[in-house]
Each structure stands twice: as structure tokens, then as C-alpha cells.
């Protein structure tokens, strides 16, 4: 399953560098080439990306990935969800750190 985090990161990378190769994408995300291929195909299938051929050398064809209008809209929605999720994680971690700091201070007094 393609998570919001991967959707967000892939759409962000593709928007910044449409000619990114699947190998480069996999390296940027720290995932396998097969998973990068699966993710791109899934995003193309649901209409968030489209792939077009271009020549990146005299003898070699490559793909350029472009966000569709739907992809641009979805990227904005995913970005907002991703941000909210990260803010919740931050608040949770901050609370946990505060509690741990209080415990350490209480143990130092004893």
C-alpha cells in the first residue's frame, strides 16, 4: 500500500525534477528500485502522474514524470495531512520529553 508519506515525497521529488529516474527516486527515498517502480505505476494508475518518453542521450529513451492537475490538487491535500500528522507526532514527542525531564529532575533531588 502506498502511504501518504511516500505519495508526498514522490510527488514532491517529481515536481522538483520531472526527469528523475526510478533509480534516483529509489535512492532518494531509501527504497528498492522495484518499490519505486510500483509506487510510480500506482500514482500513474490513479491519475496523479503521467509519464512521457524523452531522449536523455542519443540512443536511450527515458521517462519524464509530470504531475497531472489532479496530482497537483492531491499533493496539496497530502501535504496538509502529512503536516498535521507530523505536528501530532511532534506534540506527542514533546510531551514525552517533558515527562522524562520531570522524572530526571525528581530523581536528581532524591
Describe the 3D structure.
The protein has helices at residues 4-16, 22-29, 33-45, 69-109; strands spanning 49-55, 61-67. Helix 1 (4-16) crosses helix 4 and helix 2 (22-29) packs across helix 3. Helix content is 68%, strand content 13%. It has a single domain, classed as Arc Repressor Mutant, subunit A. The model has no long low-confidence stretch (mean pLDDT 90). The longest helix has 41 residues, at 69-109. The protein is built from 4 helices and 2 strands. It has a two-stranded antiparallel sheet with strand order 1-2. By secondary structure, the chain is an alpha+beta fold.
Descriptive tags:
110 residues, alpha+beta, Arc Repressor Mutant, subunit A, two-stranded antiparallel ribbon, elongated
Overall average residue pLDDT: 90
Proper CATH architecture: Orthogonal Bundle
| Biggest sheet descriptor | 2 strands, antiparallel
The number of distinct β-strands equals 2
